[in-house]
Amino acid sequence: MIKGIKHIIFDLGGVLLNIDYALTEKAFVDAGIANFADMYTQLGQSDLFDRLETGKIGHEEFVRAITDLCAVPISEEKVIQCWNAMLLDFPLRRLQLLQQLRLYYDLVLLSNTNEIHEAAFNKILESDRGIPNIGVFFDRVYFSHRVGMRKPNRDIFERILEECSFKPEHTLFIDDSPQHIATARELGIQTIYLEKGMTIEEHIFKSLN
Questions:
Q1: Which spans in 104-153 are helix H?
Q2: Exposure b/e, 158-195, CB count within 10 A at least 16 = b
Q3: What is the DSSP letter of 56?
Q4: How big is the CA angle at 39 (ends 12 and 184), to the nearest 5 degrees?
Q5: How would residue 12 be classed by pLDDT, with cut points 50, 70 and 90?
Q6: CATH fold of 7-18+90-208, please?
Q7: What is the reported pTM?
Q8: For the chain, what are the domain ranges?
Q9: DSSP code at position 170
Q10: H/E element, 171
Q11: Is domain 21-84 annotated with CATH 1.10.1040.10?
């Protein structure tokens, strides 16, 4: 564990929640959007997805936009199913780690997400673990679509530091996207980049297992 840490900011997808972007890409390609990968990846995305993630549009407008892009007719239910295909599961050990860590650190959740995914991953959590929402494990939750800001922009990190009264040198940020890590480092926040194949239970907090 990095020394001097009092607060930990966690990313959600790819860190706590297992995700597979390829499943959503395949689902939309099969639905008739051959160039979906040009519009949405882990490293970048088009304006449509930026607006969804910052709450500038809701699920209805998003669904209409996706429907217009499809080469064949597609229902709202199918669009949401394709969009949620990337969301997999919350391994039990990760949730247990959060419970342990909260005894010693302030925990904050920071996620670029949207109202469709928020409903879906909380449903997964409740169905699999009997837990109503991911927020129960954290002192504060910052979802991009709720606060109108998203990583890797500085403003969302600065808001967390100010609202939570965190000093960056005592704060650890864990994320699986290098562009998000880069911004946090610029602000003096200590970071751990969760590279592909790494998990928090096996490579960061193994001593707590």
A1: 115-129, 144-147
A2: eebbeeeebebeebbbbbbbeebbebbeeeebbbbbbe
A3: S
A4: 40
A5: very high
A6: Rossmann fold (3.40.50)
A7: 0.93
A8: 7-18+90-208, 21-84
A9: G
A10: strand 171-175
A11: no
